[in-house]
Design a protein that fits this description.
Oligomer: single chain
Distance between the termini: 45 Å
Number of strands: 5
CATH class of the largest domain: Alpha Beta
Mean pLDDT: 88
Strand order of the largest sheet: 4-3-2-1-5
CATH architecture of the largest domain: 3-Layer(aba) Sandwich
Helix content: 40-55%
CATH superfamily of the largest domain: DsrEFH-like
Number of helices: 5
Shape: globular
Radius of gyration: 19 Å
Strand content: 15-25%
Length: about 150
């Protein structure tokens, strides 16, 4: 194939991809501030990043409107302690009230079973809003396969 035809084929493929992306956006309902409805997975694997991550989730909801956001927070490793009642980060931030407030707005929270076992987390201390999933990283990949956009604050 000549370079001229190769360039033309590339332009056609890229153009079709862009049209496909725009068509997909028009199927989604318009949200607030010009955004469309969104499906997002936030990934927390360090409790010391959880305060900022949960603030991002709150701001995300505020921008879109609760009804336009399907947000799942997946925790594992050190980040799983975000969903352990009474835990705090190095700066003394606690998460129980924030998690409850976000859950009331429709945010879902997942905690990794591998981490629970490996870090010997007492299941009775896991926040009631948390769902135990077999593997945090596998859950992130699973959600991405379902069309969730990945965010790692």
């Amino acid at each position: 194939m000549s370079k001229k035809y190769l360039k033309l084929a590339t332009v056609v493929v890229l153009g079709a991809s862009l049209i496909g992306c725009n068509a997909m956006d028009t199927k989604r309902k318009q949200a607030n501030n010009g955004y469309y409805q969104q499906k997002v997975v936030y990934h927390i694997n360090d409790i010391n990043h959880a305060y900022g991550a949960l603030r991002n989730v709150k701001n995300h909801l505020n921008a879109l409107g609760d009804e336009n956001a399907d947000i799942v927070v997946v925790t594992h490793s050190g980040g799983a302690f975000t969903l352990v009642d009474g835990s705090s980060d190095q700066k003394g931030h606690h998460f129980d009230e924030t998690i409850q407030a976000l859950a009331n707005r429709g945010v879902k929270f997942d905690i990794c079973a591998n981490t629970i076992r490996g870090k010997k987390i007492d299941k009775s201390k896991i926040n009631l809003n948390a769902k135990i999933v077999p593997s945090g990283v596998a859950e992130v990949a699973h959600l991405e396969q379902q069309g969730y956009v990945y965010i790692k604050p």
